[in-house]
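Progress report, Aim 2. The chain analyzed during this reporting quarter is listed below.
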Amino acid sequence: MRVQFSPCGIGLGHVGRCLPIARKLEERGAKVLFSTYRDGTQYAQQERFQVVEVPPIEFVVKPDGTVDFKQSLVSIGPFLSSFTLLKQVEAEIDVMKAFKPDVVVSDSRASPLIAAKLLGIPDICILNQFQIIVPRRTRFLRLARLADAGTLAIIGKLWTSVKRVLIPDYPQPYTLSAGNLRIPNGYQKRVRLIGPIIPVRPNELPSQKQIRKKLGLSENKPVIFAPISGPVKERAYFTGVLRQIFREFPDDYQIVMSLGYPNASTEPIRKGNVTVYEWMPNRFEYLKACDLVVARAGHGTLAQSICYGKPIILVPTPSHTEQLNNAGRAVELGIAEMIEQDNLNKQTLLRAVQKLLRDKRFKDRMRQIQEEVIGLDGIETAVQNIMEVTEWGN
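Predicted structure tokens for the chain:
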């Protein structure tokens, strides 16, 4: 069996959740190839997979990490946007003709699905959100209405024309992307809610006490873990703000940050009670060792925190509607506090940390949800669906 993974290359999350599925397929004798771009290329190469780099999709990002929709539209424009899509489709067709996959697995990308359809190759789409939603801020309202009415309806149609749509989310009532998963009944038969992709599960690791001892962390002070994710430009501002805030935190806390730069040094930089890793190969050990998480509101980070039973403080990327919805949903579930980036400072973050550590309801609620969802295995379910589609296609 030959499987082509074509994940979105913006940030590490999309490639990151395809990697354990790809490894599991390789263990069962499959030949795997990745086609992606930018951050995703470097990450997949670091994990020693065969990778073909394809044309990227572009966004203009402001210094504070906000996606600049106006400038993105001005700089790209409808003609150039269509041209870029055609270039991507053409590149994917070339890759597929050379690799001859039995199935193409796209993660949040349209061009591989179009290419697979043109070549008659069975296809699967991994997706967080069924709809791409433009922020509803006043200055974006017209753009939002136009997008929802036209272009994004076409994208939605493309998502649901595939053999299977795999959504790595928890089932109701704990679905994280509930606000974005408005899937019409006619498409439900193609959709599988498979549970999150967790490469290392908590029961596969030693106890929290043993891990803390191994990592040199005190048992007597709370551990705050801040895994920074997202595209490089978006996370640069957030990283700078968090590092400055954490330097001013009381010595009562042990703080560990992971900056998420593949191929960077894995040696920690320690200053006072703050430890910073440019790249952390054992992040799940720190996730199990910590008492709470501080992060963006990405789907993967949030799902992993739930699986490990860790309350979380979320700082959504401004104007990133999926993250805003994720954060709101986590707060609604009673497992998180949300701080808007404009309000992020030492006082607001320290207050949120103290609230999550002192209020027993957060830990109890997280433990309850963890116990109900711990049995879900998104990796194995994804592998089974890929194999079924391949057999069906053949």
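The chain has 14 helices and 14 strands. The first strand starts at residue 2 and ends at 7. These observations will guide the mutagenesis work planned for the next reporting period.
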